[in-house]
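#struct-pred
JK: can someone run the complex with adenosine-5'-triphosphate? inputs below
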Amino acid sequence: MLTTAAATTSGVPIQIQEVEKVYLTKDGPVHALAGVSLDIAPGEFISIVGPSGCGKSTLMMLVAGLVPVTSGQIRIANQPVTRPQTELGIVFQDAVLLDWRTVLDNVLLQQEIRRLPRAPLEQRARELLAMVGLAGFEQKHPYELSGGMRQRTAICRALVHDPPLLLMDEPFGALDALTREQIAHDLQRLWLQTGKTVLFITHSIVESVLLSDRVVVMTPRPGRIEEVLTIDLPRPRRLDETERSDFTRYTTHIRRIFRAQGVLSE
Ligand SMILES: Nc1ncnc2c1ncn2[C@@H]1O[C@H](COP(=O)(O)OP(=O)(O)OP(=O)(O)O)[C@@H](O)[C@H]1O
Ligand SMILES: [Mg+2]
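RT: done, structure tokens with the ligand placed:
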């Protein structure tokens, strides 16, 4: 049974305005992003797809405030991002769990770092773990888990302090196809229940259409937004619907864009 206690803070709006990013390297400047603008509504699920090196991870680091913009501006909840943001959760390709801590204590890492009260956070951690099918695994250690279970744990860790924004950079990239489908399905459910704003980077066109309200398709470097597709399909979306024509018209369209760019994906 799913509860609502894990979802007290819902999503925030994000404005990305004419953002440009140039990295200065010893070999000269690298123009990673050029003029990226995007308005994200509170609670929206946005996927970003695009060729390798087009600046997807860069964009995420800029939103997180971990890397400064070269020009333009990013606003989260109407506040300009000028330093590392604390009111968000991040999930990377590898779960990066601490092997000496239990699953529950890994999820509670932010509670310790932020010195938040243990009892309510522990309750939320247990609820989140149950929501992704990990009830009963709280006292296991990461090395006792499968890759999919580790990544589920990482998602719970990113959400335990109840941030309004979740950033995910190819979170399922290291998983096998079957686990990946299942965990994508679980993420959709979690999102439907929590109403967080999600920025999700993926190489999988099917995954992007399955999960998103809108899919942002980027150009090769320097990354620009080529097209933003609104995915007008009812939710919850099911994996067995991905072969249906109303689903494949989106995936075919995105593949066509990549083919026109001379980029192969999937
Ligand atoms: N810290 C950095 N210093 C210098 N150049 C960087 C840095 N980070 C990224 N870049 C460059 O910026 C460009 C965009 O990189 P980024 O990692 O954002 O791409 P990406 O779309 O996430 O690629 P992938 O799909 O392979 O993960 C690349 O050319 C990369 O080499
Ligand atoms: Mg990347």
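RT: quick notes.
Residues 56-57, 169 surround magnesium ion (ligand 2) (CB under 6 Å).
Residues 177-194 form the longest helix (18 residues).
JK: thanks, will look after standup
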